[in-house]
Amino acid sequence: MVNPTVFFDITADDEPLGRVSFEVGCLQTKFQRQQKTFEL
Fold first, then answer.
1. Count of domains in the chain?
2. Does residue 6 contact residue 21 with C-beta atoms inside 8 Å?
């Protein structure tokens, strides 16, 4: 099973500062029901 990756784009004063990303594999098994809320 592939671990989903979550992205957070960070901006300040409408200027992009960067992106934070991380895999949520450890959360997938623990919070599987909540994960479906964020699926596209």
1. 1
2. yes
In tens, the pLDDT along 4-31 reads: 888 999 999 999 999 999 887 665 556 6
The answer to whether the predicted template modeling score (pTM) of the entire model surpasses 0.90 is no
Query: Is residue 16 classed as helix, strand or coil in its secondary structure?
Result: strand
Please give the Cα distance from 8 to 40 (Å, whole number): 15
Residue 33 belongs to domain spanning: 1-39
The size of the chain, in residues, is 40
For residues 23 and 17, give the distance between their C-alpha atoms in angstroms, rounded to a whole number: 20
